[in-house]
Amino acid sequence: MTDILPIIYRDEYLVAINKPGGLLVHRSEIDRHETRFAVQILRDQIGQMVYPIHRLDKPTSGVLVFALSSEIARQLGDIFSRHAVTKTYVALVRGFAPEKGIIDHPLVEEADKYTDKKARANKPAREAITEFNRLAQIEFPFSIDKYPCTRYSLVQCKPKTGRKHQIRRHLKHISHPIIGDAKHGKGNHNRFFQEKFACPGLMLASTNMEFVHPVTQETLSLTAPLAAQFTQIIHQFGWADTLPADWLTAQDY
Q: Which residues are catalytic?
């Protein structure tokens, strides 16, 4: 992983990067040993302050937006808080996922040991909705669980709410956990992908984001190509035709 982040959009008001998986957005007590953060790297890279607008889990790669001033941060924060943003993710999951569906399953907030230690316990579950559709599927003649074969799917997800780990938890809820998810996934399938396909980690990426620019009022469509190893697996499984070509222009971090 280099200290140069791929910039996918920049103007005088905001900048968007393709965040590598494994990189924290900013300093966190949870990962106190980490010394590299997207905020710090991008600030040094472009030579000015940056203001993160939304979250992207450490193991998740893809579109990450920053404001270049506190005023634009406020305006973008309002856009994101109103869910006036279309987010598209791609995930590789265990099993043959349904062709399409809507996961309407409230989620109880996951509290972090350090950052949420002052948060009120026993909070009620909050509304959480994710739309998804299956893009491709594949079967291998390997017995990993109790079945003679093992199946996997490539799914596209569009979260309608922004709960912590929403997509990861929702896909687990419908029994199709994401490959490489150490917390919500299946260890035996994660190990199989690591050994057989050199899986780099969590197979979840924020590939596209659309929202109205707070200043120009034009619709921005930001695309972050999948990482090299994710793209390699897509090609290896014969799934390249299921995704837009610019999502597969792999960038080797």
A: 57
pLDDT for 117-141, tens place per residue?
555 567 799 999 999 999 999 999 9
pLDDT in tens, 151-189: 999 999 999 999 999 999 999 999 999 999 999 999 999
Pairing of strands 100-104, 204-212: unpaired
pLDDT band for position 253 (cuts 50, 70, 90) = very low
Domains of the chain as residue ranges with CATH: 7-110+123-247 (3.30.2350.10)
Tokens 């992207």 sit on residue: 56
Question: Which of left, alpha, beta for 172 (phi over 0: left; psi -120 to 50: alpha)?
Answer: alpha
- Please compute, for residue 196, the number of CA atoms within 13 A of its CA located in the half-sphere on the CB side: 15
Task: Map tokens 């404001």 to a residue.
Answer: 67
Q: Which amino acid is at 110?
A: E
* Cα distance between residue 66 and residue 155, in whole Å: 27
